[in-house]
Amino acid sequence: MKPIKVGLLGIGTVGAGTFNVLQRNQEEIRRRAGRGIEIAMVAARNIERARELTGNQVEVVADPFAVVNHPDIDIVVELIGGYELPRELVLKAIANGKHVVTANKALLALHGNEIFAAAQEKGVTVAFEAAVAGGVPIIKALREGLTANRIESVAGIINGTTNFILTEMREKGLDFATVLKQAQELGYAEADPTFDIEGVDAAHKLTIMSAIAFGIPVQFDKAYIEGISQLQAADIRYAEELGYRIKLLGITRRVQNETGEGIELRVHPTLIPAARLIANVEGPMNAVLVQADAVGSSMYYGRGAGSEPTASAVIADLVDVTRLATVDPYCRVPHLAFQPNEMTDVAIVPMAEITTSYYLRVHVKDQLGVMADLTRILADTGISIDAVLQKEPGDETDIDIIMLTHQTREKHIDAAIARIETLPAVIGKVTRIRLETLS
């Protein structure tokens, strides 16, 4: 059987890794796929560099549309990133009857519904294992391995840059700005790290996982997103004293409320009990915790980025597409796990209606009656306190009071914080971090 011909759009970090791993493990991959998989064309801005990386073994072009329009290309691998140009290229490849493999989580989070519908109509596959958690096969687990289950929740550390920063802040007591600079020097953070540190990258990935877990459309515009740029080293230290660690967590889960079933879709810093396995995922590693009715709790751990870990996922998709290229489209695994006509439009729960526990740090003047005022306000808004940590003033005239609450709705904690910040003894804003036990 003749080899599958692949067109590669972009040969940066992941593209180069894909080419190298495919070349190195060619025979092993052929035995698994049932036929050879060959990169026949590469589109790149830097033609000379692309030729050097590929050893002049493939045709290199500057125009990516030359790849998606080439009649001999069977599968297009999109690795250029961004939104609009990749969208045009992917839709054109689909229109030309070509299968697509992509690592572009932003593209799928924003345009996934349109892309999957086009692929369904044309009878081709769009594979995207590499778009979430790099080399960790979480998409395949959610879409295929857990097919028998009703998935209840997915919670993940799905951005290695922020996890590296939080690990360094906790272990070395450094402030955010210092560790961010270190992360940039080590190559963990981009020159413009906004998407990572503000939680956007994690929200892209969470949006995709949520759609697969619950059979809903991708709805990035409805995700709540909060990053780590405002986190203080003091809060990481206090959390540790209370038996917790702070992670940037993506959380999506089924909930029941007054209006029926809803889906939470949120990314934010989160206190997690230090005894939890996911709380001990350190450095640039990723981990995803899935709760399902039949299998219970399962966790998927590994490198979420990097040249060859991500290339591993890209090539796994290439093998899957190669195996299924001749299969009736209606017999393939659906893009979002559920048959397209069986998708449901369950509402995303507004953040004000989310129920969870909270960490509150209040900086106050060291004077009588402050604690009584704080507890009275919380009681008035129906919030009960689980634990309190009050730092000794020493030579200072002001102190930190840290409180952990029992579960309450976000709108109630917002109301309490607004009242607390009007107290004469309170200095500045209240620091609020959500807390999840993940039990």
What attributes characterize this protein structure?
439 residues; alpha/beta; Rossmann fold; Dihydrodipicolinate Reductase, domain 2; Alpha-Beta Plaits; 3 domains; elongated
Mean pLDDT: 94
Classify the fold: give the CATH topology of the largest domain.
Answer: Rossmann fold
- Compute the separation of the termini in Å: 50 Å
Form type: elongated
Q: At the first level of CATH, what is the class of the largest domain?
A: Alpha Beta
The CATH superfamily name of the largest domain is NAD(P)-binding Rossmann-like Domain
CATH architecture of the largest domain: 3-Layer(aba) Sandwich
The helix content, as a percent range, equals 25-40%
Q: How many structural domains does the protein architecture include?
A: 3
Strand residue content: 25-35%
In the predicted model, the low-confidence regions spanning at least 5 consecutive residues are: none
Radius of gyration based on Cα positions: 24 Å
Total helix count? 15
Number of strands: 18
Sheet of most strands = 12 strands, mixed
Structural class: alpha/beta
Write a structural description:
With 439 residues, this protein is of the alpha/beta class. The chain has three domains: 4-135 and 307-342, NAD(P)-binding Rossmann-like Domain (Rossmann fold, 3-Layer(aba) Sandwich); 138-303, Dihydrodipicolinate Reductase, domain 2, CATH 3.30.360.10; 353-435, ACT domain (Alpha-Beta Plaits). 37% of the residues lie in helices and 26% in strands. It has helices at residues 13-24, 26-33, 47-54, 64-68, 84-95, 105-122, 138-145, 160-172, 176-185, 194-197, 200-214, 233-241, 307-324, 370-380, 410-420; strands at residues 4-9, 37-43, 59-61, 75-78, 99-102, 126-127, 151-157, 224-225, 244-257, 260-273, 285-292, 296-303, 347-348, 355-365, 385-390, 398-405, 408-409, 431-435. Strands 7, 8, 9, 10, 11, 12, 13, 14, 15, 16, 17 and 18 form a twelve-stranded mixed β-sheet that branches. The protein has a six-stranded parallel β-sheet with strand order 3-2-1-4-5-6, sandwiched between helices. A hairpin with a 3-residue loop joins strand 11 and strand 12. Helix 5 runs parallel beside helix 6 (105-122). The longest helix is centred in the first third of the chain and has 18 residues, at 105-122. The chain starts with a strand and ends with a strand.
